[in-house]
Amino acid sequence: MKPEAQLAELKRGVVDLHVEADLLERLNEGRPLKIKAGFDPTRPDLHLGHTVLLNKMRQFQDLGHDVVFIVGDFTAQIGDPSGRSSTRQVPTREEIEEGARTYAEQAFKILDKERTQIVYNGEWLGKLAFDDVIRLAGKYTLARMMERDDFKRRWAEHVSISLHELLYPLAQAYDSVVLECDVELGGTDQLFNLLVGREIMREMGQRPQIVITTPILEGINARVENGKIVGAKMSKSLDNYVAIDEAPKEQLGKLMSLSDDLMWRYYELLSTEPEAEVQRRKRACAAGDLNPRDVKMMLAKEIVARYHGAREADGAEASWLAQFSQRQVPDDMPEREVVLENEEVWIPKLLSDLGLVKSSSEGRRRIQQGGVEIDGNRISDPQAKLPKGGPYIIKAGKRAWAAVTLK
């Protein structure tokens, strides 16, 4: 593929590109570029949020370039301050080693093994002497470091910033110096760190790397309000993620729990379906010609098949449908959307608002009598609340049913 065509392909789905002219210049050199991305093994699982970046790495490989997958076994001990409102808790050495082992295995579910070099940044960062760190720190100013939004916000709110957090961008930049990479990839929350890498490479007399960022995927419990996605990014520490190596049934079940609105964001960042087909499905859902649950199943099966195979995806679908049908859900069950004022709603009030009971008091009594089920699970606590999400299948008595999405 000609350099101009490569550039057009690589820009798809990209948020930031510093600097486009530099990337085109290197593509015109006619050699494989060295592409770098780092992953700190704070937990043993790579998740679907990581795959947005991994897919861009694979795209570079398919165009003939080489990828360096950095396992941040050293930087994980510092903790990336990007997007954090407080200092990260440092994982144990055992947790880091377990994560490092599994990251390398899972990466090849997406990356081309023949064009991937896996390295551990402890190999060079662990060998730096204290005077080496001083010289490295001397190449960047505190004023520039405090320009990053995370630090600026915490400083204004009088939230502590530990000195070791200031070293994280420098350590990540030193990875680029050692590897002499052409391009570094990261999520949009990594932009500051990646740009520090450009500066440090220049200070070290090297050709500055090109910086490319990809969108951040929100966690499965995010929601859409007034056309905007509200919720934290997919994160292992927030337990709102779908791991690429977890069981097919678990993957499919988590994806089927997405709200109907959030589903389209996952289509945008994860699906390989042509954009025209995705938009067709979206229009059909809006017109009532397609059930959003069926469209969500198409997406869930696509993702499960990618990491486990088509047969496992079919099996996960059959298991989910069997579980769903065992609830003896009526065909004419009403489907509702309820906009909440808060993050959760008292279940007796919800039952009343849905018209399944006459009042909140009756809803409380119905729960105490064991007559209320949500997603097949009997509710026993009359004070229980239900968080935003869904669709939830609610049964209140023998004939009162509703499928409700809380927004």
Strand count, sense and barrel status of the largest sheet are:
6 strands, mixed
The number of distinct β-strands equals: 15
Query: Roughly what percent helix?
Result: 40-55%
Q: Mean pLDDT, as a whole number?
A: 87
CATH architectural group of the largest domain? 3-Layer(aba) Sandwich
Radius of gyration: 24 Å
Unreliable stretches: none
The CATH topology label of the largest domain is Rossmann fold
CATH classification class of the largest domain: Alpha Beta
Span between termini: 46 Å
Structural class: alpha/beta
Any idea how many domains? Answer: 3
Task: Explain how this protein is built.
The chain is of the alpha/beta class and 407 residues long. It folds into 3 domains: 3-214, Rossmann fold (3-Layer(aba) Sandwich); 245-325, Tyrosyl-Transfer RNA Synthetase (Orthogonal Bundle), CATH 1.10.240.10; 335-406, RNA-binding S4 domain (Structural Genomics Hypothetical 15.5 Kd Protein In mrcA-pckA Intergenic Region, Chain A, Roll). It has helices at residues 3-10, 20-27, 48-62, 93-107, 122-125, 130-137, 142-145, 149-156, 163-166, 168-179, 191-203, 248-256, 260-270, 275-287, 292-308, 310-325, 347-353, 360-368; strands at 16-18, 34-39, 66-71, 116-120, 183-187, 210-214, 223-225, 228-230, 335-338, 344-346, 372-374, 377-378, 385-387, 389-396, 401-406. A 6-stranded mixed sheet has the order 1-6-5-2-3-4, with helices on both faces. Strands 9-15-14-11-12 form a 5-stranded mixed sheet. α1 crosses α2 (20-27), α12 (248-256) packs across α16 (310-325) and α17 packs across α18 (360-368). It is globular. The two termini are 46 Å apart.
